[in-house]
Amino acid sequence: MVRRASSPHKAVYNFLNMDITFHNPRDSLYELSEKLAINYYKIEQEFPNIKKDDARLTCYSKCTNIVEQILFSRIFEDEQLKDSKWFEKIPYIKSPTEIQIKTTQDMFDSYLRVSLVTIFFSSLETFLRTLQKELFPKSKENQIYKIIEIMLENFDLKYYQRIFDLYRFLRNSLHNNGIITDKHTYPILYNGIWYNFELGKPVQINWLMLCQVTSELEDCLNKIIHNEKIMKIEHIQDSSYFEISGFSHMYYES
After folding, report:
1. Cα(64)–Cα(214) distance, rounded to whole angstroms?
2. Fewer Cβ close by (within 10 Å): the C or N end of the chain?
3. What CA–CA distance (Å, rounded) separates 226 from 56?
4. Containing domain of residue 115, as a range?
5. Is residue 28 part of a domain?
6. pLDDT digit string (tens) for 163-214?
7. Residue 48: inside a domain, yes or no?
8. For a pLDDT cut of 90, what percent of the chain falls above it?
9. Residue pair 100/90 in contact by the 8 Å Cβ criterion
């Protein structure tokens, strides 16, 4: 459940002398994907000897991949999934009604939102757990919410605590079809809207909100990577690394 605050405001983020303003889902996903890719390349340039399996790079590549794939899927949803002729490609569907097409679009869109939040958060979680082992090898802490608290405090980034909590609460609710089951949630005011996270009730979210929160988490990730404690480490092994083809922005020319 959400409640709009009295003075909502628009979110604008600056990067490389560019403005990223969230306005519609498709453009917002593109701008977010580009922002991630650009910062990936900047890390490559700032760490000339960095290896492909370094957690600082792999986290960015995973995050960029999911945002880019969601973008491609949104394009498919906008341009193909609303066309009744497209459904002729599926043998058991003949002539879908407008209601069936709309229902299919809604379900597909819900799947994309779940995928973005779940996989993006999972990429950050893997990175933070890797940092915990690197910086605090004797730590026995295993709960991600505690690891997040420890990392943010260690890097003097406690401002992002509510952003992480908001995303984590959303991730947890999406595991339960959008229904809040975690009794440890609390109301969060974000971008002029209250997200109340009431037990047994659903949370309504939209693409612009997801892009805004995801972008703020990327800002935090970037600040962690550029922290003195992290920059002086020569190599941070990502044990989950595997060879991937990269993302389309690999061909981006700055």
Report:
1. 11
2. C
3. 10
4. 24-143+207-237
5. yes
6. 999 999 888 887 666 677 777 788 888 888 888 887 777 777 889 999 999 9
7. yes
8. 56
9. no
